Amino acid sequence: MVKKKIPMRKCTGCGEMKPKKELIRIVKAPEKTDENGNVSGDADISVDLTGKKQGRGAYICRNAECLQKAEKAHRLEKSFSCKISQEIYAKLAKELGENG
């Protein structure tokens, strides 16, 4: 019998490799452009519990400590190549608290 390969991902907070199903995906939606090709609006960053949302993803453990470590070291900003406001971190912390 062939063993199924388990996809591994690295937590942006603690840096540990863990099975993908144990982590929560944080996704930056693709930027929307207007008819002139100009980027409109801020980056839409949210928690993706399904793991199927479109966009660039980063993974984090299901605890608030890893989110705090990622925030302190600006690891999500490095992953997404954009500035992330405090409001977004607060929203992610709230969603992690509800779902984690």
Structure in words:
- By secondary structure, this protein is an alpha+beta fold.
- It has one domain (8-31, 40-99): YlxR-like (Hypothetical Cytosolic Protein, Chain: A), CATH 3.30.1230.
- The chain is 29% helix and 24% strand.
- The chain has 3 helices and 7 strands; from the N terminus they run βββββββααα.
- The protein has helices at 64-72, 75-80, 86-99; strands at residues 8-10, 17-19, 24-28, 32-33, 39-40, 45-48, 56-60.
- The strands form 3 sheets. Strands 6-3-7 form a 3-stranded antiparallel sheet.
- The radius of gyration is 15 Å and the shape is globular.
- The termini are far apart.
* Major sheet description: 3 strands, antiparallel
Number of domains: 1
Tell me the Rg in angstroms.
Answer: 15 Å
Q: Quick one: CATH class?
A: Alpha Beta
What is the fold-level CATH name, i.e. the topology?
Answer: Hypothetical Cytosolic Protein, Chain: A
Query: Secondary-structure element order, as H and E?
Result: EEEEEEEHHH
User: What percent of residues adopt helix (DSSP H or I)?
Assistant: 25-40%
Unreliable runs, pLDDT <50, ≥5 residues? none
| Mean pLDDT over all positions | 85
Strand order of the largest sheet: 6-3-7
Coarse structural class: alpha+beta
Instruction: Find the CATH superfamily.
Output: YlxR-like
Query: Which architecture name does CATH use?
Result: 2-Layer Sandwich
State the helix count: 3
Q: Total number of β-strand segments?
A: 7
Overall spatial form: globular
Strand content: 15-25%
State the end-to-end CA separation: 34 Å
